[in-house]
Design a protein that fits this description.
Structural class: alpha+beta
Order of helices and strands: EHHHHEEEEEHEEEH
Distance between the termini: 32 Å
Helix content: 25-40%
Number of strands: 9
Largest sheet: 6 strands, mixed
Shape: globular
Length: about 260
């Protein structure tokens, strides 16, 4: 479920999950804008670029984004404490916010929602996503060893950069990996671009290398398959750099309103 609360306050740089279908419609229409194909358990995988097999690219110079402190030392709140979790989210910019930052034009819209809150409070699709997330998360844990997480993390270099991935774990090499869970009434052939931005931001905040993107398709809120589909999304530091620029523009504008 996408949560947007009015911004309460913002930390400076030096200061000490649920998501489901689109927030307003069952069909994620922005899926057609993505440039990356999907593969999963539900059918034949589309052809991918030679030597790829995943979404995203690990870029040279990515050490600039390596977490300086372990992610477990950077937890601000957990969703089980709803009030503390919402207050902590309101103090910065989250992966849900960053998912909307497709361009400079989107900055103003995010700033407005951060200042005044969103009018959207949920619908049948978000309720379905909340109901199904624990079931799908259990499947992810059983098949990939990525455990469910309700923690809100901040980035090692900026406490106003926030993320709450649906799952956190380690691969066989000990690298940090994440999971992001969605439900949809649509047949996705490409990962919706806003979900890619959400995952890249989460990877940056936690210092993760890749994310398992897991989606369950339903027809009239009844799952169409016994198991969800999934796809690994690799970290892309070029994309992350651009998102940091846009996110900081949002934060700067919010600070300006506070100081004004």
């Amino acid at each position: 479920m996408t949560i947007v609360q009015p911004t309460l306050s913002l930390w400076g740089d030096d200061s000490p999950g649920w998501d489901d279908d689109a927030a307003s419609t069952p069909a994620a229409s922005s899926a057609t804008r993505a440039s990356n194909g999907l593969e999963g358990r539900g059918g034949a995988a589309p052809r991918l670029p030679s030597g790829s097999g995943q979404v995203g690219t690990r870029r040279a110079g990515s050490d600039a984004f390596v977490a300086l402190r372990a992610h477990t030392e950077r937890i601000l709140a957990r969703s089980e404490d709803r009030v503390a979790w919402l207050r902590a989210r309101a103090m910065g910019i989250t992966a849900t916010d960053v998912a909307r930052l497709a361009s400079l034009h989107a900055v103003e819209a995010v700033v407005t929602d951060k200042r005044y809150g969103s009018r959207f409070s949920g619908n049948a699709y978000t309720e379905h996503g909340k109901d199904r997330e624990p079931v799908i998360a259990a499947w992810v844990a059983a098949t990939h060893g990525i455990q469910p997480s309700d923690a809100l993390f901040h980035a090692s270099t900026n406490r106003a950069h926030l993320a709450t991935p649906d799952g956190v774990g380690h691969d066989a090499s000990g690298r940090l990996v994440l999971a992001e869970i969605k439900t949809t009434g649509s047949t996705w052939r490409r990962i919706p671009r806003h979900y890619l931005r959400q995952m890249w931001w989460q990877q940056y905040v936690l210092g993760a290398e890749r994310t398992l993107f897991v989606w369950e398709r339903h027809d009239g809120f009844v799952p169409v398959a016994d198991e969800p589909e999934c796809r690994w999304v690799e970290r892309d530091d070029d994309q992350i750099r651009g998102l940091i620029v846009l996110a900081d523009m949002v934060l700067d504008k919010l600070r300006g309103f506070r100081q004004g």
